[in-house]
């Protein structure tokens, strides 16, 4: 069974962004979606990750058609099965980085992985308030928080946008190891070609179409 099937998705705001596009995600997949700014990458990722209902088409996650789920079931799916890493971080800004991870740890009943915090270079700042951290540090805290939840599917929108090349590369190492170990999947939106090439599959969003290029 695929982890995610998005079939014949169309969406428009002022104009049509994409029409009749499909994406299938299986366990172990690492998928990059590329395309120029404004091509609709973030919108498509919002649709895949349950945050936006498309104008047409179906999204099925872990065998469940999203259209058939109540708001409560959607919240449960998001908090237990999906890891959503978006530009707006959704961290609790008034709390420390560690407190943010503790919430995720309570949800998953998994311990916070100290080695992961070391690898991300945030172990020393975990007791600071999120609002006092730099953009890049916040980005790494949200990555650590999402992984602490042990999600089946990670959705990440430009997750390394504020990071230097070396840290960005380490984040990709961490994602790839996580996906392999947990039979999970990664759907990553990026305009960074070198990051995209660290994924097994690459899709390009252009002229309203989604085309597999790797
Ligand atoms: N909530 C919204 N309401 C109206 N227009 C939107 C909304 N979100 C995105 N758009 C428009 O849709 C287009 C694609 O946006 P987006 O999906 O963010 O593209 P990308 O992530 O590829 O840069 C842009 O022209 C953007 O202005
Ligand atoms: Mg975007």
Largest beta-sheet details: 6 strands, mixed
Helix amount: 25-40%
Looking across the biggest beta sheet, what order are the strands in? 6-7-8-3-9-10
Mean pLDDT: 95
Uncertain runs = none
Which series of helices and strands comes N to C? EEEHEEHEHHHEHEHEE
Amount of beta strand: 25-35%
Describe the structure using short key phrases.
single chain; 214 residues; alpha/beta; Rossmann fold; six-stranded mixed sheet; four-stranded antiparallel sheet; 7 helices; globular; binds adenosine-5'-diphosphate; binds magnesium ion
List the helices and strands and how they pair.
Elements: E1 4-12, E2 16-25, E3 30-34, H1 41-48, E4 56-61, E5 64-65, H2 71-80, E6 82-85, H3 97-108, H4 114-120, H5 135-148, E7 153-157, H6 165-182, E8 185-189, H7 193-196, E9 201-206, E10 209-212
Parallel strand pairs: 3-8, 3-9, 6-7, 7-8
Antiparallel strand pairs: 1-2, 1-4, 4-5, 9-10
Bound molecules: adenosine-5'-diphosphate and magnesium ion (MG).
Structural overview:
The chain has 214 residues and is α/β, with parallel strands linked by helices. It has seven helices and ten strands. It has helices at 41-48, 71-80, 97-108, 114-120, 135-148, 165-182, 193-196, and strands spanning 4-12, 16-25, 30-34, 56-61, 64-65, 82-85, 153-157, 185-189, 201-206, 209-212. It has a six-stranded mixed sheet with strand order 6-7-8-3-9-10, with helices on both faces. It has a four-stranded antiparallel sheet with strand order 2-1-4-5, covered by helices on one side. Helix 3 (97-108) packs parallel to helix 5 (135-148). The structure holds adenosine-5'-diphosphate and magnesium ion. Residues 13, 17, 35, 37-43 line the site of adenosine-5'-diphosphate. Adenosine-5'-diphosphate is lined by residues 13, 17, 35, 37-43.
């Amino acid at each position: 069974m695929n982890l995610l099937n998005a079939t014949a998705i169309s969406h428009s705001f002022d104009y049509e962004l994409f029409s009749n596009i499909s994406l299938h995600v299986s366990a172990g997949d690492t998928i990059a979606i590329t395309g120029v700014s404004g091509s609709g990458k973030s919108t498509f990722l919002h649709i895949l990750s349950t945050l936006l209902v498309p104008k047409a088409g179906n999204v099925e996650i872990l065998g469940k058609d999203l259209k058939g789920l109540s708001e409560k079931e959607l919240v449960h799916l998001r908090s237990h099965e999906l890891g959503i890493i978006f530009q707006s971080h959704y961290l609790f800004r008034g709390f420390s980085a560690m407190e943010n991870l503790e919430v995720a740890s309570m949800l998953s009943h998994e311990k916070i992985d100290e080695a992961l915090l070391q690898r991300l270079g945030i172990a020393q700042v975990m007791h600071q308030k999120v609002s006092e951290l730099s953009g890049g540090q916040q980005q790494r805290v949200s990555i650590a928080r999402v992984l602490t939840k042990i999600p089946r599917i990670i959705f990440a929108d430009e997750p390394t946008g504020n990071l230097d090349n070396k840290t960005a590369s380490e984040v990709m190492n961490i994602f790839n190891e996580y996906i392999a170990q947990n039979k999970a999947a990664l759907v990553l939106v990026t305009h960074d070609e070198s990051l995209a090439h660290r994924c097994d599959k690459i899709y390009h969003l252009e002229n309203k179409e989604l085309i597999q290029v790797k």
